[in-house]
Design a protein that fits this description.
Elements lengths: L6 H14 L11 H39 L5 H11 L5 H10 L1 H11 L1
Helix pairs in contact: 1-2, 2-4, 4-5
Amino acid sequence: MPRSVNSVASRARRKRVMELAKGYFGRRKNVWTVAKNAVEKGLVYAYRDRKAKKRDFRTLWIARINAGARLHGMSYSEFMGKMKKAGIDLNRKVLADLAMNHPLAFEAVAKKLN
């Protein structure tokens, strides 16, 4: 008796990976073994960098808040400490936007802290 192989499922699995490899360069886009490795590595990078992206943005926001705070004679840590003590609950994303795009609004927040 011949062995039973579920070629429909195998082809579907390969097709799914090859779809993800679309746009890759060279053999990565059309050779199964190379494409499978490239796609797996790409998915690992995607997962890792979704986490790293959050860290990167927080770093950027802190740098912008620090620059805005220093214009008003405070360091970042002083500024955030006074914000907490004053009970002003603005997150770093909003504060960074104020510091960059709305300096008058950021100045008003900084004056409330003094």
